[in-house]
Amino acid sequence: MNAEIIVRAAEDRDVDGIVGLVEDRIGEEDAPEARLVLEDPGFDRTRWSVAVDGDRVVSTMATFPMHIRFGSVAIPGSQIEFVATDADYEGRGLVRRQFDYHHADLEHRGELLQVIVGITYFYRRLGYEYALPLADWRTIQPEEITELPDDRVVRPATIDDIETLVRLNAATQQHADVGVAFTPELWHLVLTSPVYRTLIVERAAEAVACGRLYADEEPYVLDLSAQNRDDLAALLSGLAGLVPGKPLTIVDRLGTRPLLADIGSAEKTGDAYYARIGDPVAFLNAVRPELSRRLTASPLASGTGRGLISLYAASIRFDYADGVVGAFEWHPGEPAPISKGGSGVAPDRVTSLLIGPLGFSGLADRYPDVNGGKQAALMETLFPPMRSDVQSWVVP
Ligand SMILES: CC(C)(COP(=O)(O)OP(=O)(O)OC[C@H]1O[C@@H](n2cnc3c(N)ncnc32)[C@H](O)[C@@H]1OP(=O)(O)O)[C@@H](O)C(=O)NCCC(=O)NCCS
Q: Residue with the nearest Cα to atom 21 of ligand 1?
């Protein structure tokens, strides 16, 4: 049906078409950001796809590498942005075709986890799970903002501060079990984008806090990072000064929530980032040191055995002994894992099992096709509930 429409990596001749499509379907202010990326000579264009009908760009999307931390292990991953299809070409599978292109590309790059925020339900059709819950919104009224103390300086962040911004955000993300963080390249884009203003607080000439303002009708604060209330108060004072008289809505984070407990009003979003782990065996093998750490710290530390996790149409097997989790391997489907002493996890719950807030036992309580059997204690040990912190380019 789409024989005439080609999906491929973006090229120079597509840039104006992509920017126009982003402006039309996503938003006016997103268009300059798309151009910024596409005209960056350091950007790998094979990460930006188009569907073209002749010369006309009719659908597009892009991926950006992210730094992901799973417990103590760093793993490569990506965030997806700029998904849009021309209104005349919707419903023809063009976004699905581009996801196929990117999933193959990301697998080739060894990026084991993808994160995306956006259109309700849609990305579940494309293999994503709502696995990383969004923290609360916290709204702070102008009268709650205190004056900037004399011993702190607030200033705009520049591209010379990228290392500092990475460090401050990493410290705040330490409170989470799973952290999805900007790479220096993504910080560069965000700092050069006309859409955001990022501030840094200095105390005794040392950078101690930062935050990124999206100054919409309702201003939002992303990437809030601080280690104590006074540094945070100084930052809020600087941010509020950029949007006088308006309340600030903060995308709360595990690491800063305790510092904000008695300021503003919090509202649950009930929302989550979508995530996808395309190859659970590759992911499990990458995070084996963390899984072994969990096993060693558990009452099963001295246990020995062969684990079986059936995804029903395929299964995963691994050995464990004396606190060390061995290599995970794909095996054929096992429709009745419980009778074999193993466990079952529906394939569309695997991402939630590995990085989600419910852990194995929470999923097993809710879903009949997630079962522990005799191996339940091992599954609970390896896959506890995970708390996450996601840095997302756009306001979620
Ligand atoms: C949402 C949008 C990206 C879909 O693009 P598209 O090219 O029509 O998508 P596809 O045809 O590839 O759809 C893939 C699947 O999702 C389904 N689908 C399409 N739009 C959907 C929606 N809004 N909700 C749920 N499912 C949807 C399709 O039926 C198709 O299902 P199938 O493959 O199982 O038959 C497009 O409508 C758009 O550009 N919207 C405005 C821009 C936007 O909101 N971008 C996201 C910013 S974060």
A: 122
Question: Do 146 and 254 sit in the same domain of this protein?
Answer: yes
* 116 in any annotated domain: no
CA 94 to ligand 1 centroid distance, Å: 8
Q: Which domain holds residue 347?
A: 279-382
Are 168 and 249 within one domain? yes
Percent of the chain with pLDDT over 70: 99
* Atom number in ligand 1 closest to CA 116: 48
Q: In which residue are the tokens 């950029």 written? A: 242
Query: What pLDDT is stored for residue 217 in this prediction?
Result: 84
Q: Which of 21, 59, 85, 120 to mutate to test the pocket of ligand 1 (most atoms within 8 A of CB)?
A: 85
Residue nearest to atom 40 of ligand 1 (CA): 84
pLDDT tens digit sequence for 229-271: 999 999 999 999 999 999 999 999 999 999 998 999 999 999 9
Q: Which residues pair with 14 in a beta bridge?
A: none
Residue showing tokens 């020995």:
304
Cβ(396) to ligand 1 under 6 A? no
Cβ of 80 closer than 6 Å to ligand 1, yes or no, is: no
> Ligand 1 center to residue 248 CA distance, Å?
32
Residues 283, 265 share a domain: no
Read off the amino acid at residue 36.
L
Same domain, 81 and 173: no
- CATH (domain of 166): 3.40.630.30
Domain boundary among 269, 291, 306: 269
The total domain count for the chain is 3
Q: In this structure, what is the dihedral angle of CA atoms 386, 258, 396, 114, given to the nearest 10 degrees? A: -30
Q: Which helix (H) or strand (E) holds 377?
A: helix 376-382
262/144 same-domain check: yes
In one-letter notation, the amino acid at residue 110 is: G
Helices (H), 201-303: 229-242, 280-286, 288-296
pLDDT single digits (tens) 303-328: 999 999 999 999 999 999 999 999 99
- Do 20 and 50 lie in one domain? The reply is yes
163 has pLDDT over 60: yes
Confidence of residue 216 (pLDDT cuts 50, 70, 90): confident
> Is the pLDDT assigned to residue 388 strictly greater than 90?
yes
